[in-house]
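Figure 6 in text form: structure in, sequence out.
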């Protein structure tokens, strides 16, 4: 049953946000299932990585072999540099895969398209079966974020997207809305699977207790404040500036003693910091990047955890990965969403969903939660049974066994 699986994704540990985390946990999960797992990736972006980690060309991390390619660009908000970085990764990956193509039985690429192109190339020209994992649908995501506007480029990217789908034996998405999005683009539903995001329950529960006192003493030693926290990627899609508008509204109430914490990093961090300084917005603190093992305690010490998406129809079919981690922390959630994210929070009675980017509705929700926190106690056992990492990795492994004839050794 053991197979040699090549994972292709431009971002990997020590990056631990979004798709980098998904790739790491998927590779390590399938390694535990008995497969030989190799990751082809690039050098990590400093602003998205665990502080102090020194990556090298080749590493073995928790049993997974990791090969890194240099793309020469620190990709942030510049779309041109981002595209060039993806192109360099695609070219270097293609050359690398051609050289080592006979050493693998299956390729799994994780979106964005540059990684998917590598996997599709491997299937079409190197005869290496390919599964395309799609936590983010491109170019739809880039268009929604306002990062891709050129009509010709958009047309080219949609053609590339379809070419990747056509050269994938199987495809998976993380929400029902994303599955429907792919089906509407003419992809056969028989090759599409739903594998939602997951949460490493054991990691979160252990570390929430282990570092609880440390984080409490750091952010709220004398219990003077209500702690409202945004944790994760401070990016363009998250509409994070609406939280500063929310902070200004909350500051109008002198009776409410609170801290609004931004924990993480991203392309919008500098913009937020400058605005807070310029407008002298009170009670906002930027914690920055923290070791991942401290994240559960930051969640545990928060009175409310907040998330938001841009007010855009595409974002309605997305769920931020941190939402699952918010849920397992069992703290009340305020989310700016009217789509799949809102449904997930409401399904488990975990908090309140409001219109995206609406600070006035957010303010009302904040007061509702603070006045009635016990109204939002989720069915944690049910949530864990559906979204724990072990269960979803098992489903993923079963798909591989069924679709890729793992019982037939080469």
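Output sequence:
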């Amino acid at each position: 049953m053991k197979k040699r699986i090549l994972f292709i994704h431009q971002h990997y540990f020590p990056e631990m946000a979004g798709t980098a985390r998904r790739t790491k946990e998927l590779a390590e999960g399938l390694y535990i299932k008995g497969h030989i797992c190799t990751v082809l990736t690039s050098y990590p972006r400093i602003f998205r990585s665990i502080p102090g980690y020194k990556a090298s060309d080749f590493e073995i991390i928790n049993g997974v072999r990791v090969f890194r390619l240099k793309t020469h660009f620190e990709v942030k908000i510049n779309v041109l540099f981002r595209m060039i970085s993806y192109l360099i990764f695609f070219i270097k990956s293609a050359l690398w895969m051609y050289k080592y193509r006979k050493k693998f039985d299956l390729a799994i690429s994780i979106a964005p398209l540059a990684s998917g192109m590598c996997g599709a190339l491997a299937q079409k020209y190197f005869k290496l079966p390919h599964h395309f994992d799609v936590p983010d649908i491109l170019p739809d995501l880039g268009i929604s974020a306002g990062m891709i506007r050129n009509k010709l480029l958009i047309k080219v990217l949609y053609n590339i997207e379809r070419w990747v789908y056509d050269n994938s034996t199987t495809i998976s998405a993380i929400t029902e809305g994303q599955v429907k999005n792919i089906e509407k683009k003419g992809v056969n539903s028989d090759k599409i699977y739903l594998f939602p995001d997951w949460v490493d329950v054991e990691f979160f529960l252990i570390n929430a207790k282990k570092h609880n006192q440390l984080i409490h003493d750091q952010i709220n030693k004398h219990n003077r404040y209500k702690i409202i926290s945004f944790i994760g990627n401070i990016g363009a899609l998250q509409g994070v500036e609406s939280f500063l508008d929310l902070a200004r509204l909350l500051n109008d109430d002198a009776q409410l003693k609170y801290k609004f914490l931004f924990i993480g990093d991203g392309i919008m961090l500098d913009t937020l910091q400058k605005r807070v300084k310029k407008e002298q917005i009170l009670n906002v603190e930027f914690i920055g990047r923290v070791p991942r093992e401290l994240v559960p305690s930051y969640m545990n010490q928060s009175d409310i955890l907040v998330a938001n998406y841009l007010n855009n129809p595409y974002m309605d079919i997305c769920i931020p990965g941190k939402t699952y981690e918010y849920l397992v922390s069992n703290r009340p959630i305020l989310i700016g969403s009217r789509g799949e994210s809102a449904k997930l929070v409401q399904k488990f009675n975990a908090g309140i969903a409001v219109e995206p980017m609406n600070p006035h509705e957010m303010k009302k929700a904040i007061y509702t939660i603070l006045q009635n926190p016990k109204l939002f106690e989720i069915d944690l056992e049910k949530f864990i049974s559906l979204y724990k990492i072990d269960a979803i990795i098992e489903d993923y492994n079963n798909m591989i066994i069924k679709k890729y004839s793992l019982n037939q050794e080469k």
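Caption detail: The domain at 201-386 is CATH 3.40.50.2000 (Rossmann fold).
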